[in-house]
Amino acid sequence: MSPEKIVILGTILIWRSMTAVINIRFNSCHSHLLHVDSSWTIEKVKEQIAAEEGVSPNDIRIIFAGRELQNSTAIREIDLGLHSVLHVIQGRKRNLSLQVETDCERGQGEVPETEKEQSTPLNHYYIFCKNECKKVCAGKLRVRCSKCKQGSFRLEQEPSCWDDVLKPGRIMGVCEEKDCSGDTAEFFFKCANHSSTEDESSVVLYLIKANTRNVECITCLAICDPVLVFPCLEGHSMCLDCFRIYCQTKLNDRDFIQHPELGYTLPCPAGCDNSLINEVHHFRILGDDQYDRYQRFSTEECLLQMGGVLCPQPGCGAGLLPEDEQQRRIECATPQGCGFIFCRRCFQAFHQGDCDQRLMDTASTTGYSVDPARAERARWERLSKDTIGKTTKPCPQCNVPVEKAGGCMHMQCTRCKLDWCWLCHSPWSRECMGNHWFG
Amino acid sequence: MASMEKRLQKELQALLRDPPLGVTVDSDKTSRSLSEWTVDLEGAPGTLYQGEKFQLAFKFGPRYPFESPQVIFTGSNIPVHPHVYSNGHICLSILTDDWSPALSVQSVCLSIVSMLSSCKEKKRPPDNSIYVKTCSKNPKNTKWWYHDDTV
User: CB 3.0 to 4.6 Å from A269: which of A20, A90, B100, B149, for a disulfide?
Assistant: First the structure.
């Protein structure tokens, strides 16, 4: 490869009218660029490569995205896209002798095979490009050998549904690499907007689809492209702008659902059954800052569900999973934690004896010598604690302070959803309704 | 903001073109400002509210439809119903906790008509007098407790 050609790879690797530059990888050992005309057939491409490599054109075969390209195929007929790599193999074809599993589970939808064959738009896969573009981009489906990770892999059968592509070990084939006995295909996705290294891949956002059916967004009622299709039976669709605001609103209300298998997720806004988003990378659409927040909430909810606690020290909030669930004394161990030792029931500094019932409050500072500067700051915290103590009561189940701004005695904890009585400080009952519902 | 206006524009067109039975948008009042609508409701035939006419006032914030509209009964006739306070506030879960951006003005109106239709005895909520004296002007500031879906 000459230095001049290396410059071309980095800068003007684009389709210009009828000509194109293709990256050729020869025998998986070296690469070079080839200028081609989109009207050329594969036979013509082979002749060019053979001349450059000093081999016979009949001796080489070209593999792209798991398929061997036929001599009669024209370059423009294959969905080459930008920055694609053609794998050129020298030598005889290896035989396929393997049986292939063909069952496809329902649920994740079919790979839009017919739509893939239409001329425009060619792209039907979307990924979140977190490295360069930092947004949802068109994606390219690529295949490699699961063993040696080389792209010179020929599929025995094409994938026919998302499960074939997303679950490992379902599609078999032959690795054309010398000395590799790999027989299992591994699919991955790349961003179509820029060239990327061989091992750089992105998670495919398979609920995002090109809006080939001109479906209205369930929220803004406009017809946008692409759309996110919820996994409900109806397949309700939402444009990506609305999806971002929908997620943001639900995140602000901390109204996501913590599902034991699917993670921290959202259902279809129409309230359909079985409509939870089952690949949480879709929430990447929130953007980096909000996705960080999403991940923090998600971790916290998961930890609480597992019986863990969060360190109550301001600015800490570390997640702790005490081994002994009965243990009341909890230490936010350093160096990961802040060193605060607290009571599991009242979330104040650890103390002997019963928790203080008034808000289960009062920082029991006895036994500590307090730094004067910290004491100054603590006065403010003290004030706000007093305010909280006066206007709120802790939820009888999870202890979160609940403010009663008006209305009846019937409270519902916004965090753990317990229905409780403000007056009795116990779960809401028929008796509460009869005796002091709103008195 | 743009998404809110576009969506309201489309909802308004659809409601004017093809209004559900007993629901009429007051287009004169509504066209003045897209963020505040007045909708006339009629009590459904065969129910306690047959022949009665009511008016709903909708207020939409800039985050509509991701956040619910504020909806209250207005005008001279406030329905006497166990979930409707005499100041027009309505205790209906889709207006706060159960709101979804997939709901619309039409679905809210139909829910309210259906809430009226299923009523068996015309009476005010048990806490009406204390609520009306102490509540905020905006019913969305009330932490509602939805105790009975059968009425």
Answer: B100
| Residue of B4, B89, B99, B143 to mutate for A, most A C-beta atoms under 10 A | B143
User: Contact B102/A222, CB-based, under 8 Å?
Assistant: no
CA angle B54, B58, B64 (to 5 degrees): 155
Q: What is the mean pLDDT of residues A158-178?
A: 86
Mean pLDDT of chain A: 77
* Contacts across the A-B interface (CB distance below 8 Å): 64
pLDDT computed for residue A8 by the predictor: 35
* Residue tagged active-site, from B91, B109, B119, B135: B91
The lowest-confidence range among A110-124, A245-259, A320-334 is A110-124
Reply yes or no on whether the pLDDT at B59 is more than 90: yes
What CATH code is assigned to B2-120? 3.10.110.10
Nearest Cα of chain B lies from the Cα of A135 at a distance, in angstroms, of 20
Q: What is the pLDDT of residues A110-154, one digit of tens each?
A: 444 433 333 344 567 899 998 888 899 988 888 889 998 888 888
B141 contacts on A by Cβ (under 8 Å): 405
Answer yes or no: do A407 and B143 touch at CB < 8 A.
yes
Q: Do B145 and A236 touch (CB under 8 A)?
A: no
Instruction: Extract the tokens encoding A365.
Output: 């500072």
Catalytic residue status for A408: yes
Q: According to CATH, where is 2.20.25.20 located in chain A? A: 310-355
Q: List beta partners, residue A88.
A: A26, A62
pLDDT digits (tens, 9 = 90+) for B67-114: 999 999 999 999 999 999 999 999 998 998 889 998 999 999 999 999
pLDDT of res. A112: 44
Chain A residues close to B102, C-beta within 8 Å: 218-219, 236, 268-271
How far is the C-alpha of A13 from the C-alpha of A84, rounded, in Å? 10
Out of B10, B67, B145, whose CB is closest to A412? B145
Beta strands across the sheet bearing A60-64 = A30-37, A19-26, A85-90, A60-64, A67-68
What is the rounded average pLDDT of the residues A292-313? 89
Comparing CB atoms, the residue among A268, A271, A406 nearest residue B134 is A406
- Tell me which residue in B11, B100, B147 faces A270 most closely, judged by beta carbons: B100
Determine contact, residues A236/A272, Cβ cutoff 8 Å.
yes
The residue in chain A having the minimum alpha-carbon distance to the alpha carbon of residue B11 is A221
The DSSP result for A82-120, as a single string, is: TT-EEEEEESPPPPP---------TTS-B--HHHHHSSS
Structure tokens at A146: 């699961």
Q: Which fold has domain A6-90?
A: Ubiquitin-like (UB roll) (3.10.20)
* In chain A, ranges of CATH 3.10.20.90 domains: 6-90
CATH 2.20.25.20 fits A310-355, yes or no: yes
Average of pLDDT values for A341-367? 68
A85 Cβ contact partners less than 8 Å away, ≥ 6 residues apart: A22, A23, A24, A25, A31, A151, A198
